[in-house]
């Protein structure tokens, strides 16, 4: 039948006439089947109907809403089809809804038929908003009656969305605000568990979020909702607590202080009780989030001269209940109190100033009062929490900042922690130092020099490796903020330590000190201006240690390479740093390696640290990291030097390039064994180039590498030549040349 309507063989009204006897039959079942057939056709053809046809059909269906209850489901399906028609005359939507509100007891219908009613309402709200608003609060009241008592989760999701639209699209709620709240809040908190084989896929979380969106959508609900939330926070069920706290947080985004005012004491007392008593981290986290949201909401309210500053009185009650616990660093309420104060303080600059004005002087005083390291650590960790909040606003305001007025005692406490024998206290001190350094304009130039002195002492001379590593990390995060101080004050000190030869120290202590110097130089190389100071120091040290031949020297060279590698990684994102590093380090490493290989060719028994397998392997990541992020121009320039060096012994681009003989790594000969090992550096370079960089003399290079990997009797060299060959083949564009090379390899 639908096909006939679609191709114009007959109209829907002709179909109604043809069904006439069936639609007027005295048996409700027969009438129901006739209407069902008509409704199914309408659901397929509603978009083809003319305005006049829609008018007749709407009147027919409205009339049938008074029919026998067996017929109603099919009538509703027909109205759902008509609610989707674009050519619905003005006034019809209102008339359909009035008829449904008046004639149908929706909650006595089956789930699917109730769902149909919600769909009709949703469709009209989407297309006929202005008309429905003309009904005023009658529409809201009608819907409340439709929804009242709904139990099915599939229907609730739609019903909650309708309520939310009523509110957010400003339909008139009239005298029915409380009724609308009652009809939705009766589901709070949601305790739905989907059946194990549920085909509808509705999760508890969907219902929770959908209901929360309704409850937290308007300040008009505040007077009813807040008492409910306070009651449910007291529940024994953790899920109810969490839902109440999350809903409260959501409400704070739309409420003002007017809505919150009378409930603030009860809300605070519930939140405080939960944080002081709960064993659950989840509940604690949600309480703190809610307190933060309350503080933020009160911070945003505009003050007029005659209203009380609610933020101030709210924070006063929090301070009154929590501040004294901070004086008991061993007791169990110290951390809950600190967290509550930090949650409230972090909501706005105004709240932060109000809380820190009261709390920071107290913490500084407590630090001096309690000499034990464990207590001091607790106090400093609390202080650190407040300092970290200041980071949110970045700069320190001159006029109202408590922090600036306390600069001297704060620095003195942090510096004293750095010299404490307790490693745990030192670690908190280092974190605090990093935060202070990140606050613009907080540390004076003389403070900064002290900071550097402390960091050097901890990084190089502190026995515990945790403190040493933390100090290096701190130096790394502060260096880019104060590049001048670090390149001018720290790098020269590290260089001095690196070069000092101390007779009285055992060689093991001296090695560990050198090792730490190298790590510290790498850690601070974050800013290009510092890199330009540290790289020459590292390379100078490399030249010095590679001259020896003991196993010790090989380990030293590996350490320098590890530091150089870290610097290379830190330079990759900065174009200028990347260029400087590549142009300085790569030629220098190649020159040292070539020099060592040539000396080996002429004086085979000296034994060179630089030619050890583990040392060459440590140079690979340095060359590789220095090459992967090159600009196309620099990569092209570099490859035009490095490839001819290996193929033709072209050494003119290397620093200190007066070598005793020629460099011929691809030639045969016993005495060139050492030179052939350097192919690993060629591999590190060409395999790390960006894919689109052209390799000069590529075919010749591939043939040489293939020959070397097949004929060389040193496994180390043969393997690296094969890897280098593979890297070039992988980047080679497809085509005849590549096929020839692969064929050559298979033949070989």
UniProtKB/TrEMBL annotation:
<keyword id="KW-0234">DNA repair</keyword>
<dbReference type="InterPro" id="IPR011989">
    <property type="entry name" value="ARM-like"/>
</dbReference>
<keyword id="KW-0677">Repeat</keyword>
<keyword id="KW-0206">Cytoskeleton</keyword>
<dbReference type="InterPro" id="IPR024687">
    <property type="entry name" value="MMS19_C"/>
</dbReference>
<comment type="function">
    <text>Key component of the cytosolic iron-sulfur protein assembly (CIA) complex, a multiprotein complex that mediates the incorporation of iron-sulfur cluster into apoproteins specifically involved in DNA metabolism and genomic integrity. In the CIA complex, MMS19 acts as an adapter between early-acting CIA components and a subset of cellular target iron-sulfur proteins.</text>
</comment>
<comment type="similarity">
    <text>Belongs to the MET18/MMS19 family.</text>
</comment>
<dbReference type="GO" id="GO:0006281">
    <property type="term" value="P:DNA repair"/>
</dbReference>
<dbReference type="GO" id="GO:0071817">
    <property type="term" value="C:MMXD complex"/>
</dbReference>
<dbReference type="GO" id="GO:0016226">
    <property type="term" value="P:iron-sulfur cluster assembly"/>
</dbReference>
<feature type="domain" description="MMS19 C-terminal">
    <location>
        <begin position="517"/>
        <end position="744"/>
    </location>
</feature>
<dbReference type="GO" id="GO:0005634">
    <property type="term" value="C:nucleus"/>
</dbReference>
<comment type="subunit">
    <text>Component of the CIA complex.</text>
</comment>
<dbReference type="Pfam" id="PF12460">
    <property type="entry name" value="MMS19_C"/>
</dbReference>
<dbReference type="Pfam" id="PF14500">
    <property type="entry name" value="MMS19_N"/>
</dbReference>
<keyword id="KW-0539">Nucleus</keyword>
<keyword id="KW-0227">DNA damage</keyword>
<dbReference type="GO" id="GO:0097361">
    <property type="term" value="C:cytosolic [4Fe-4S] assembly targeting complex"/>
</dbReference>
<feature type="domain" description="MMS19 N-terminal">
    <location>
        <begin position="16"/>
        <end position="277"/>
    </location>
</feature>
<protein>
    <recommendedName>
        <fullName>MMS19 nucleotide excision repair protein</fullName>
    </recommendedName>
</protein>
<dbReference type="InterPro" id="IPR029240">
    <property type="entry name" value="MMS19_N"/>
</dbReference>
<dbReference type="InterPro" id="IPR016024">
    <property type="entry name" value="ARM-type_fold"/>
</dbReference>
<dbReference type="GO" id="GO:0051604">
    <property type="term" value="P:protein maturation"/>
</dbReference>
<keyword id="KW-0963">Cytoplasm</keyword>
<dbReference type="InterPro" id="IPR039920">
    <property type="entry name" value="MMS19"/>
</dbReference>
């Amino acid at each position: 039948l639908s096909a006939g309507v679609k191709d114009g063989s007959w109209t829907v009204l002709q179909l109604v006439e043809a069904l006439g006897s069936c639609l007027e039959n005295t048996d409700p079942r027969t009438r129901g089947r006739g209407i069902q057939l008509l409704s199914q056709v309408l659901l397929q053809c509603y978009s083809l109907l003319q305005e006049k046809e829609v008018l007749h059909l709407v009147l027919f269906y409205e009339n049938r809403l008074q029919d026998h209850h067996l017929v109603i489901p099919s009538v509703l399906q027909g109205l759902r089809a008509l609610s989707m028609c674009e050519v619905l005359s003005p006034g019809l939507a209102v008339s359909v809804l009035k008829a449904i509100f008046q004639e149908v007891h929706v909650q006595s219908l089956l789930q699917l038929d109730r769902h149909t009613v919600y769909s009709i309402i949703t469709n009209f709200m989407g297309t006929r908003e202005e008309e429905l608003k003309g009904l005023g609060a009658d529409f809201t009241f009608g819907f409340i009656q439709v929804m009242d008592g709904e139990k099915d989760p599939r229907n609730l999701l739609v019903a909650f969305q309708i309520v939310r639209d009523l509110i957010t699209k400003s339909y008139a709620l009239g005298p029915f605000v409380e009724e609308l709240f009652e009809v939705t809040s009766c589901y709070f908190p949601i305790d739905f568990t989907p059946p194990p084989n549920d085909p509808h896929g509705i999760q508890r979380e969907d219902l929770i979020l959908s209901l929360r969106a309704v409850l937290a959508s308007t300040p008009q609900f505040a007077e009813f909702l807040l008492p409910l939330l306070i009651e449910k926070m007291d529940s024994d069920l953790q899920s109810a607590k969490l839902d109440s706290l999350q809903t409260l947080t959501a409400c704070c985004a739309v409420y003002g202080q007017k809505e919150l005012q009378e409930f603030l004491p009860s809300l605070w007392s519930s939140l405080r009780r939960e944080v002081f008593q709960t064993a659950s981290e989840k509940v604690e986290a949600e309480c703190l989030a809610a307190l933060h949201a309350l503080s933020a909401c009160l911070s945003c309210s505009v003050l007029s001269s005659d209203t009380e500053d609610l933020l101030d009185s709210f924070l006063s009650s929090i301070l009154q209940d929590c501040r004294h616990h901070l004086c008991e660093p061993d007791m169990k309420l110290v951390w809950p109190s600190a967290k509550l104060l930090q949650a409230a303080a972090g909501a706005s600059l105004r709240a932060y100033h109000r809380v820190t004005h009261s709390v920071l002087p107290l913490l500084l005083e407590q630090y001096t009062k309690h000499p034990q390291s464990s207590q001091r650590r607790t106090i400093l960790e609390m202080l650190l929490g407040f300092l970290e909040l200041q980071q949110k606003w970045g700069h320190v305001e001159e006029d109202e900042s408590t922090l600036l007025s306390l600069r001297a005692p704060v620095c003195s406490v942090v510096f004293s922690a750095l010299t404490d024998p307790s490693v745990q206290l030192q670690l908190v001190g280092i974190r605090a130092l990093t935060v202070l350094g990140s606050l613009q304009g907080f540390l004076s130039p003389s403070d900064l020099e002290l900071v550097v002195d402390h960091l050097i002492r901890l990084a190089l001379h502190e026995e515990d490796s945790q403190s040493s590593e933390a100090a290096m990390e701190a130096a790394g995060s502060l260096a880019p903020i104060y590049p001048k101080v670090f390149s001018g004050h720290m790098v020269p000190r590290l260089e001095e330590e690196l070069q000092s030869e101390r007779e009285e120290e055992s060689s093991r202590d001296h090695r560990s000190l050198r090792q730490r110097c190298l790590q510290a130089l790498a850690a601070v190389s974050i800013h290009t201006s510092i890199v330009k100071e540290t790289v020459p120091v590292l390379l100078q040290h490399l030249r010095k240690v590679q001259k020896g031949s003991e196993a010790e020297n090989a380990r030293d060279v590996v350490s320098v390479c590890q530091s150089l590698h870290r610097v290379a990684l830190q330079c990759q994102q900065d174009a200028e740093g990347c260029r400087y590093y590549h142009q300085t380090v790569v030629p220098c490493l190649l020159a040292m390696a070539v020099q060592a290989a040539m000396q080996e060719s002429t004086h085979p028994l000296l034994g060179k640290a630089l030619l050890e397998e583990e040392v060459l392997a440590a140079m690979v990541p340095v060359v590789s990291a220095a090459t992967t992020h090159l600009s196309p121009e620099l990569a092209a320039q570099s490859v035009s030097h490095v490839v001819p060096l290996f193929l033709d012994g072209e050494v003119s681009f290397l620093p200190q390039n007066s070598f005793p003989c020629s460099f011929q790594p691809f030639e045969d000969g016993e005495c060139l064994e050492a030179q052939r090992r350097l192919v690993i550096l060629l591999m590190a370079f060409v395999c790390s180039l960006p894919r689109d960089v052209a390799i000069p003399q590529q075919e010749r290079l591939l043939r040489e590498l293939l020959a070397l990997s097949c004929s060389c009797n040193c496994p180390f060299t043969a393997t690296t030549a094969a890897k280098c060959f593979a890297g070039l083949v992988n980047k080679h564009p497809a085509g005849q040349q590549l096929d020839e090379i692969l064929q050559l390899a298979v033949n070989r």
